[in-house]
Amino acid sequence: MTTLRISAVPSAIILLLLAVPALVCAHAQSSPTPNPQLASKDIDGRVEALLKQMTLEEKIGQTVQYSAGFATGPSASKLTYDELVAKGQVGSMLNVVGADRTNHYQHIAMEKSRLHIPIIFGLDVIHGHRTTFPVPLAVAASWDPEAAETVARLGAAEARADGVTWVFSPMVDIARDPRWGRIIESNGEDPYLSSALARAWVKGYQQGDLSKSDSVAACVKHFAAYGAAIAGRDYNAADMSEITLRQIYLKPYHAAVDAGVATVMTSFNTINGIPATADPFTLTQILRKEWRFDGFVVSDWGAVGELKNHSIGDGPTVARKALEAGTDMDMEGDLYGTVLAGQIRSGKIPESVVDEAVRRILRVKFALGLFDHPYTNVGPAYTATAEKRAIARKVADETMVLLKNDPVEGVGALLPLSEKTKTVALIGPMADDAVDLIGAWTVTGNPKDVITLKTALSERLGDKLLYAPGCGLLTGQDENVLNSVSFTGTATPTVSQPLPDDEQMISEAVATARKADVSILALGEPTNWMEGEASSRVHLGFTGNQEKLLEAVVANGKPVILVVLAGRPLELTWAAEHVPAILEAWSPGIEAGPAVTDILFGDVNPSGKLPSSFPRAVGQEPLYYAQMPTGRPATGDLSHLPANSDEKFVSRYLDEENSALFPFGWGLSYTRFSYTNPTVDHAEVPIRTVVDDHQPVVSVSVDVKNTGTVQGAEVVQLYIRNTAASVEQPVRELKGFKRITLAPGEAKHITFPLGFDELNFYNVDLKKTVEPTIYKIWVGGSSLATAETSLNIVE
Ligand code: BGC
Question: What's the gap in Å between 303 CA and the centre of ligand 1?
Answer without folding.
Answer: 10
